[in-house]
Amino acid sequence: MSFPAFGAILFDLDGVLVDSEVLANQVWIAVLAQHNLHLSPHAFMKGSIGQTLTGVFDWLHAEHGWAKPDSFESRLDEQLLQAFETVRALAGAEHTLRSLQAAGMPTAIVSNSQRDRLHLKLRAAGLNDLTNGHVYDPEHTEGRGKPFPDLYLLAAQQLGVPATRCLVVEDSVPGVQAGLAAGATVWGLCAGEHMHAGSASELSDAGAARLLHSHGELQQALAALGNGSEEQLKMR
Predict the structure, then answer these.
(1) What is the pTM of this model?
(2) Domain 21-84 has what CATH class?
(3) pLDDT tens-digit series, residues 85-144
(4) Which residues contact 64 (CB under 8 A, 6 or more apart)?
(5) Which architecture characterizes domain 8-20+88-235 according to CATH?
(6) What are the catalytic residues?
(7) Domain edges within the chain
(8) What is the distance between the alpha carbons of residues 140 and 151, in angstroms, rounded to a whole number?
(9) How many CA atoms does the CB half-sphere of 218 hold within 13 Å?
């Protein structure tokens, strides 16, 4: 398997490699309700997906006039860590990573998740041994997560590949924006349980060059990289 169009593939974590978005959504909604803010699953998912923790709090304050009480964050963290012990990899995600590793393709995981939660999810999903040490979160970039390009630029730099030769796989609008701002090609993956009827169009409108609906489709698309140029692949 060869990959003439790209020198590295950079993956988001939540909703791309692990099916954690709905799980996290349920915890957030429950803990917010305990602190006098009641949101529907759809409303919270729409406003929070792909955001940093700070970004979620900023959105809650701007959109709902809610400021977190002192006790909120510790309670949330406790509940999320418990929930993420049960998280599972998306179907086919492990095979995607193993195939790329076997082919010698540099990869990295680039997430807005907090570091302790990120590594817990990787361990629980059985993906921890497939990262090659290239796992990046906002602590690496002084808190500047997606939609800023910093994390993707850092991952590309650490892999020794220009960001313009990287393929980013994302499931959220902030993630797509971050990848594009870094100069990478971005594909949208609509495979997680959290995806809804409008998800594909949202990713496309944000600039995703291609939309895929499973890791099986992603694997086929990556295998096809040896048979066409980057521009041809963008247009399929």
Answers:
(1) 0.85
(2) mainly alpha
(3) 999 999 999 999 999 999 999 999 999 999 999 999 999 999 999 999 999 999 999 999
(4) 37, 39
(5) 3-Layer(aba) Sandwich (3.40)
(6) 12, 14
(7) 8-20+88-235, 21-84
(8) 8
(9) 28
